[in-house]
Amino acid sequence: MEAGTVFTTISLIMIANACVLSVVSRDLPHTLRPAARSWQIGTVLIAGGCAVFAFGSSWPRPAMLVGANGPMALGLTVYYAAIQQFYNIRPKAWQFIPAVIATLGVLWFSLVTPSFQTRVVIVSIVWVWLMGASIWTLLFKSAGDTSLSRKILIGLIGVGLVFSSARVIAYLLMGVSSNFAVESGANWLNILSPMVLTVLPVVGTTAFLLMCSDNLRRRLEVVASTDYLTSLPNRRMLARAGEKRFRDAKVRHSGFAVAVIDIDNFKTVNDTHGHDVGDQVLVTVASLLREHSRKEDMVARSGGEEFTVLLNVEHHTTAVEAIERMRLAVEQARFVTGAVRIRVTISAGVAAYLPTDNTFEEIFRRADQALYSAKAAGRNRVENATVPHIGGQSIPMAPNLADAK
Q1: EC number(s) in its UniProt entry (predicted)?
Q2: Residue 382 pairs with which residues in a beta bridge?
Q3: Residues spanned by CATH 1.20.1070 within the chain?
Q4: Ramachandran bin of 303, using left for φ above 0, alpha for ψ from -120 to 50, beta for the remaining angles
Q5: b/e map 388-402, b = 16+ CB within 10 Å
Q6: What is the CATH topology of the domain spanning 235-404?
Q7: Rounded distance, CA 83 to CA 95, Å?
Q8: Using an 8 Å Cβ cutoff, are 258 and 351 in contact?
Q9: Catalytic pick among 2, 243, 305, 361
Q10: Does the annotation mark 305 as catalytic?
């Protein structure tokens, strides 16, 4: 098999992949389209370089070499930029310098001082640097992306990097002449090179599309589990997290607590000032609750003007103290709309996990009942749930901090 035939076949496959990516990218979110467009451009550039190797034999040799190697180095550069854009990293203009160096190096050492060895060293160094930079971005700038498609792409680029390094060493050890032609079938490495080095644009395009699909799936999961107004976890996410913490508490014999929080007289705010102001109050309260919670706690919007906090605590009083800090933060905050200052307060009920609890819902119901007690006692207070059925009566689990004020 001639190397030119291999280059021709692979360039056609890459062009087909680029066309598929062009069609699919139209259905991607606008935030992913720049990355998909860059990957498409990179694939077309590498395909163009392969096509020049396949059909440029009638060109002046320096022109053919520059026309083939330049687009391929530029294509790898654009791949690197596509990976950066995928992770919301803005590519820098200086990143194109290696491709320029490779192009000028090929031009000089094919036209002025012909030397195959020097050309292949320069081009290989640029390729290895670009692929290494792409792998580094995928490994360390991926923002917690653990998708299989990302790992596949890392593997594909890694294969290209290792082969490029081994290839230049092999050519140097072979002692080939200065006018050696990689597009000919005179050497077994000439046939193997296009097959291995073009795995990235051929199979890598599929891996990149899978990365886009995984990213879109994760975004949909976030949308499905996040409250659109406050960006807090919604009731669905709360239920999952609550069940997990309940199971952990059962297995590890650890403690946790649930607090149900409600904005006092929220209907009056909506009726008096309008729903837009009501939404602003919800967003502000959500922000305050999140700001005054600990990293290990979870604040969720469980519906309407109601919020729920899951607290990792070993002592009941610790949970009450944590919610009391949130209550004070809301009470002391300034809620201003136009020239009107709105007084906003919250009431809360807190319930701690008991070894006798059978489900997360039991703890949630106790916290909800404590919330009703807080409302009935005058609002703007934190009530601690009582332990059910101890000695034939219900007794409080911890002192009420609001009563001491």
Answers
A1: 2.7.7.65
A2: 348
A3: 3-225
A4: left
A5: eeeeeeeeebbebbb
A6: Alpha-Beta Plaits (3.30.70)
A7: 13
A8: yes
A9: 305
A10: yes
Residues of the chain with CATH 3.30.70.270: 235-404
Query: Phi and psi at residue 335, in whole multiples of 5°?
Result: -110, 105
Distance of alpha carbon 341 from alpha carbon 286, whole angstroms: 19
How far is CA 215 from its chain centroid? 7
Residue showing tokens 């700001």: 291
The tens digit of pLDDT for each residue in 18-76 reads: 787 778 777 788 889 999 999 989 988 988 888 887 787 788 989 999 999 999 999 99
What's the token pair of residue 75? Answer: 């294509």
- pTM for this model (two decimals): 0.71
Burial of 113 (0-12, 13-18, 19+ CB in 10 A): exposed
